[in-house]
Design goal:
With 407 residues, this protein is an alpha+beta fold. It is globular and about 65 Å long. The two termini are 33 Å apart.
């Protein structure tokens, strides 16, 4: 999916600086000669490390106690659905290729698949969180992500699938287009055109755009169309009363740019405490600023109509609300069973959102252009307004673990 990103998700990067040592040899009547010495290359640290459960468990919290499976929300079926989606992926040739090249040799396609099958059996047969936890600790080994600091610290964000109203034809009201993937896109020379080149500074380049004729849908608000680019998919209410959906079909070759950070850099909004709802409110109040800031994300995203199907992750199976995550698939095992610990906002009886620390079993089924390195997780919150409100204020640092059957 996209994918799939929250507007405030920040790309992470680690710069390694290797000093170049040199030996200076002096010879009579000659200039000093610098003899380069090849710097020693540090060993590559795997993104996942096996852990001893006793070192991370406390009396208040031990891994695998996903109490929400038996709580009021009773979302056990959502977890089982997500497991089944991963098992479907693991039976494909794409999965075979992915695991042939996976850098941690003991994490194999067969082991990931057997782990999911056994875990599913345990979820179905367990009668309580404690019973499932005991079985998991007995039969599985945990691998922890090294995080962005080598100590397991993982930055969490959340994404969702928005629901927007759009028209199949351009009108005086619905005039901001979403585009199909150009049929010759693979032949486009690089560097690709930037966003401003394809849609104009105000998003209305129209007939002058090289994308003329590829319009898929039209939106009444430019920010709505842009948010579909950010999230990578959307459910659509058509103006004729029918429903459809769109999903990611491709994108130009540019990195993620956080518009929230750009606004903060210019002093328009404080970076501290900046959430998606606050950012959207800013643009609603200052619509002319859209032309100044939206083009700063140079990447442009193309879509295909998916006819009402659920949001789909990068492994080409549907993602499940609060049971699917997106990670860097060059490092993390696709389709695998994971466990996350982080604080997420939940609605209260008073209609407000309050943060609760939880640990949840999830399936790794997606990725995103801003989700780079072992210290990033994007959590799929679901579809619609409430999911968007919750995703917009999700953040913080937590932990990421993967579960595999003991060998």
């Amino acid at each position: 999916m996209r994918k799939n990103l929250t507007l405030l998700a920040l790309s992470l990067g680690i710069a390694f600086i290797n000093p170049l040592s040199a030996v200076i040899a002096q010879a009579p009547n000659s200039q000093p000669v610098t003899i380069p010495v090849t710097p020693e290359i540090p060993p590559v640290v795997p993104a996942l490390q096996p852990i001893d459960l006793e070192t991370v468990c406390t009396p208040q919290n031990c891994l695998g106690l996903d109490e929400q499976l038996w709580g009021k929300r009773r979302d056990k079926q959502a977890l089982l659905t997500s497991i089944d989606n991963s098992l479907r992926y693991l039976a494909t040739s794409k999965a075979v290729t992915a695991y042939q090249n996976y850098p941690i040799k003991e994490i194999t396609l067969s082991r990931v698949r057997r782990s999911l099958v056994r875990f599913r059996q345990l979820v179905v047969s367990s009668r309580s969180a404690a019973e499932l936890q005991a079985a998991v600790r007995r039969e599985f080994v945990f691998y922890q992500s090294v995080g962005n600091d080598g100590k397991g610290t993982v930055k969490f964000t959340a994404y969702y699938e928005p629901v927007y109203t759009a028209s199949r034809v351009r009108t005086s009201v619905y005039k901001y287009p979403l585009y199909r993937l150009p049929p010759d896109f693979q032949k486009w020379p690089k560097p690709h055109p930037k966003r401003v080149d394809l849609e104009g500074k105000n998003g209305l380049l129209g007939d002058k755009s090289r994308l003329r004729g590829l319009e898929l849908l039209w939106f009444r608000n430019r920010l709505d169309a842009y948010m579909v680019h950010i999230q990578g998919s959307a459910q659509i209410r058509l103006t004729n009363g029918r429903r459809t959906s769109v999903g990611f079909a491709g994108g130009t070759d540019y990195a993620w740019t956080s518009i929230g950070r750009e606004l903060a850099k210019d002093g328009k909004l404080p970076l501290s405490g900046l959430t998606m709802p606050k950012l959207i409110a800013y643009f609603r109040q200052n619509p002319k600023e859209l032309s100044n800031y939206l083009p700063r994300w140079e990447r442009f995203v193309f879509f295909a109509e998916t006819n009402g199907t659920p949001a789909t992750g990068s492994i080409l199976v549907p993602v499940t609300a609060e049971r699917s995550i997106a990670t860097d698939k060059s490092l993390m095992p696709p389709g695998a069973l994971a466990l996350i610990i982080n604080s997420f906002p939940y609605p209260t009886s008073r209609g407000k959102l309050e943060s609760r620390l939880v640990n949840r079993f999830v399936l790794d089924q997606d990725t995103g252009s801003a989700i780079k390195g072992p210290g990033r997780v994007d959590y799929f919150m679901g579809s619609g307004q409430l999911a968007g409100d919750r995703a917009g204020i999700t953040g913080g640092n937590g932990s990421l673990f993967y579960l595999f059957l003991k060998e």
